[in-house]
Amino acid sequence: MTETEKRPKDFIRTIIEADLRSGKHSGVVTRFPPEPNGYLHIGHAKSICLNFGVAGEYGGVCHLRFDDTNPTKEDVEFVDSIQEDVRWLGFDWGDKLFYASDYFEKLYDYAVQLIRDGKAYVDSLSADEIRAYRGTLTEPGRNSPYRERSVEESLDLFARMRAGEFADGAHVLRAKIDMASGNINMRDPTIYRIRKAHHHRTGDAWCIYPMYDYTHCISDAEEKITHSLCTLEFEDHRPLYDWVLDELATPCHPQQIEFARLNLSYTVLSKRKLLRLVADKHVTGWDDPRMPTIAGLRRRGVPPAAIRNFCERIGLAKRDSLVDVAMLEHAVREDLNAVAPRYMAVLDPIRVVIENYPDDQVEELDAVNNPEDPSAGSRVVPFSRVLYLERDDFREDPPKKFFRLSPGREVRLRYAYFITCTGVVKNDAGEIVELRCLYDPETRGGDAPDGRKVKSTLHWVSAAHAVEAEARLYDRLFTKEDPDDVPEGGDFTDNLNPASLAVVTAFLEPALAAVAPGTTVQFERLGYFCPDARDWTAERPVFNRTVTLRDSWARIEQKG
Fold first, then answer.
1. Residues 65, 238, 261, 342: which is the catalytic one?
2. Which domains does the chain possess?
3. What digits encode the pLDDT tens for the residues 463-477?
């Protein structure tokens, strides 16, 4: 039995399998149709995994098609980033790369056909007037005074619109459907508008551009898509999708199927809001590691396999719901725990002097690279008389159940020795600046020969060999589970987390200086970190915290 056969079937796969059994389709063709007006985010990843995933499972193909019908908001930068993101997630469209602009001439011809058939007309109302005539959810719309324009006049005006005779907004082409429809999308929707703007592919060849609802279904038909999978906000648009294809009698009529989009706690996935975060400099760019963009997640060190696993785990539904971001963090930890090499680093150092260790001695200790993967081998870590420990690992007056280092207490240093704190050095302000300790040379790399036990094992870095680096400690970008939960007159940016980024100077074991950007590692006991792909230099390594080690979602799953 294949993995596909073992997996419980969601409603989309159930439909696809029924279509294949009945002979409705001999194969599966899907598409991922992003608009090149921004960077992809984790919500898009769900659609990417679904469209490419089901095509692969059933021996079909998935097209990558750019919906480039709005030249005022599109850019080649976004086209390139989208292709990079899809490939990074692990998917390939082969030679099935398309653009809506590939079909501009056909779309125009189809629009002419609708006019000739009496199914479309050129309207000269302003945008505000069209909105006023459209009606409301409880009141029907009113016919435009231009609705009964003759076919000949509409054909003439439409040709002149294409020729550039009119200013933006002077006319639009509307489908002639039903202004009294209970579905507002069917109340004579606009299918072409004038937009005198340079297009990143067609240049200045066009000054009229088709609307998404009109373009999308025809593009699907032209590419012989079998199952057009989209999110729930397009459910009310499906009647228009079908109407256009039925009226044009296209040789292929794809089936539109809607699924619930991804909503993630402590996150905004509105492209408009993400653009504001970038434009208003609340973040450093689309690839800021706090952003839910795929570029941001990649820069933060999130593995593509973790995103794919997360998307599979949350499944498909027909109703919108909120997914706990802790579930994504759990998927990241789960993946990295198995593959990420371990290293030692100290983020908030306190100096430790081992008084009975020789001044000029340096030992090379074996350290395990990944206890979850014996094949990962080991590395050498230098040990010397002066070390850095994490400040939180020491308490001069320890509370109950504090088992780490304190005066008179013995602990184990990872891969090294047992040490006992014998003294504390303070500055004039009474702050602890140094610890004095003794080590037991009989405990190297293991337990004490006499069988005595310690309750804590601490990570450390040799001060003489430490590599100084910048560590960026990222937290959630918003303080509220629903960033849009604001008082009347408020704004989602009011819920930005002022502590979403802390920058500290870290001290690393020497091997970390050679870790290449794009490789996520674990700083033992601290979390997973990734060299920053943008700011890393050999002189000043920069590490981004991918995720902490604490995993609340794993505990929730265990309790469940």
1. 261
2. 3-259 (3.40.50.620), 271-302+310-341+469-559 (2.40.240.10), 345-459 (2.40.240.10)
3. 999 999 999 999 999
